[in-house]
Design goal:
Radius of gyration: 16 Å
Shape: globular
Helix content: 40-55%
Strand content: 15-25%
Mean pLDDT: 93
CATH class: Alpha Beta
Order of helices and strands: HHEHEEEHHEEH
């Protein structure tokens, strides 16, 4: 008999790319509201820039939804009863964050400070379970790449 999924477990069934129903059932309706709001925010603020791309990271990492043009913008990780956004900040982007540090939420400052810096940037994994969490993600994404108005 299969075990029940645990909170935070990833979608690892490689047989098919997840659709909205699968995502909603996996992350739950509350998290799905934030998931949808973030996707809508990206679509509205970056019209025609990104095409979301489902990528499979193997049995350990499962499915993730990547937004990328020439370099990664963000990646959404559907997890059981939750979801996270991964944002990689390069040197110039970290400088922007540092310059605006006083305006960041305490939680976002803590996540930023705790994130390890690698050769390709500082990787932040931000759990999104509330409008405040969503605001933290969108603030970082706006610093990473300013939004533009729809044509």
């Amino acid at each position: 008999m299969d075990q029940s999924p645990e909170i935070g477990q990833r979608l690892t069934d490689k047989s098919e790319v997840p659709d909205d129903m699968t995502i909603r059932n996996w992350i739950g309706s509350d998290a799905f509201a934030q998931w949808s709001a973030l996707q809508d925010w990206i679509t509205a603020g970056y019209p025609g820039v990104f095409t979301p791309d489902w990528i499979y990271g193997g049995k350990k990492h499962g499915w993730s939804l990547r937004y990328k043009k020439s370099k990664a913008f963000c990646t959404l990780l559907p997890e059981y009863r939750a979801f996270s956004a991964v944002i990689v900040l390069g040197g110039a982007e970290r400088a922007k964050v540092e310059a605006r540090r006083d305006t960041l939420s305490p939680r976002l400052k803590d996540l930023y400070d705790a994130a390890e810096t690698y050769h390709d940037g500082k990787w932040l994994k931000i759990g999104v379970s509330s409008p405040d969490d969503l605001r933290d993600v969108t603030e970082l994404l706006t610093l990473k790449r300013p939004r533009r108005a729809a044509a």
